[in-house]
Design brief:
469 residues; alpha/beta; 25 strands; globular
Length: 469
Amino acid sequence: MSFFDSFEKFGNKTAALQSDGKSITYSEIGALSDKLGELIPERSLVFSLCENSIGSMCGYLSFLKNRIVPLMLDVKIDGELFANLTEIYKPAYIWCPDGKRDDLGDYEEIFSDRGYRLYKTNFNISYPLCNELALLLTTSGSTGSPKLVKQSYTNLQSNAKAICEYLKITDSEKPITTLPMNYTYGLSIVNSHTLAGATMLLTDATIVSKDFWSFFKEQGATSFAGVPYTYEMLRRIRFFRMDLPTLRYFTQAGGKLQPELHKEFAEYALEKGKEFVVMYGQTEATARMGYLPADKSLEKFGSMGIAIPGGKLSIIDVDGKEITEPEITGELVYEGDNVTLGYAECGDDLIKGDERHGRLETGDMAKFDKDGYFFIVGRKKRFLKLFGNRINLDSIDRIVKSVYPDTDVASTGTDSLMIIYITDERISDGVKELIAEKTHINQSAIEVRFIEEIPRNESGKVLYTKLNQ
C-alpha cells in the first residue's frame, strides 16, 4: 500500500488535527490533492514553505500523489538563502502559508485552501526532473548552502514501511509534532503515520509550552519524537513526574544522545510501561537506518542499535574493507532501498538518476559489540548536530569571514555546543548573534572564544587538536 491508498482506504477518518481544533479527513486530503493536480503540471518543481499545519501536510502529500516535486523549506527560512535557492533552482510554483511571506515578488496567486496559497512564478526556464525524483530536502541547515538531497518515491515508501514495522504503528496512533515538517525526521513521522492511517496532532508549540501539553492530554497523544536537546529540556521540565497515560512510545534521533540521559529515559520507560526507541538516520538515507529495540534500550544504552528492516549496517576500515571483529572502530556504511539518489547543487543536477545505488558511506565513525549492536563514536567530517540540525562547520567559518574579513576564525564543538574561535575579541557578541540568526540555533548552544592566534600547520590547515587544548 502507498501513502495515497490511505486517502481512499481510511476515507472519513481524521488524518490531522490542529491545536486550534481544525481537522481534515483522509478523503478531504484526496479531494485537495485532485485540485492541486489540475493546477500544477506533473514533474513541476514547487517550493513548499513548511509549518506544522494541515495546509503544509496536505500540500506535501498532494505533491507526492501528483508526481509534483517539492523542496521542503522552513517557513522562517532566512530571506537571503530563500532568494539564493530560488535563483538557483527556479521553482515553477510556491506553496506558502497565508500572510507568512511578503517578499515573494510579483508572483501570481492561483489557489488558496486550508490556510495556504499557491503562487505561480515567472521564471522562463524549467529544469527537467529525474522520473524517480519525489522530494528535495536541504542538508546543511540554514547556513547558505544550496546543496539538496534527492529522495525517490522508492526511498520514501520503503523507509515509511520499515518504520511502521519496527515501531508497530497502526491507525490507532496519535503522534504529536515536536519537529518541523521540512526536517527529515519530522517528515518521516508524517510519512509513516499517513501510510498507517493514523491521526497527526499538529502544533508548532514547543515542549516547554503549557499549550503543548494541554493539547497532548486533551487529544490523547500516543507518541512524540525528539532530538538530543529535546530530551535535555524534558528532563529540566520534570517530564518524569508527568501523568501521560495515553503515551505508548517516544523516539530519539538527530544526533547521539548522551549515554546517561539515554539510560534515564530508558529506566523511566521501563518503570512506566512505555517504549523508548533510540534511532539513527540521515537525510541521505531518507530518514532512518538503525534503531535500538525498546526491550534493549536499558541493556544497550548508548547504542544506536541495529539496521532497520530491509537494511544492512557494516563498518569499513580506511582501505574500504569490511571490519568483521567487534569493538574495532571504522566508518559506518548502510545499504538499503531508502538510500537516496544523491545530491543536487544546481538545477541541472535535478535530471540525474541514482548515483548511490543503495549504498551510503555515512561519514560517522562507529563500532559494534559482540551482540551486533552498533555504537557511534565520532564523525569523519566537520559536522555538528545541534537541536537536530546538521551544521557544516566550514560554512560557519565562511559566514563569519564574510562579515568580519579581518579576523581569523575556526569553529569546532560537540552536538551540544558550537565553539567559534576568533582573533578579534571586540566582535564576540556580533559573531554569536550572526550565527544564531543564520542557523536559527539558540545562542545558548553557541560559544565564541577569543584566541591570540589560530594554530595552523605549514600548509595553513587548522590544527584542531591543538585548538581544543
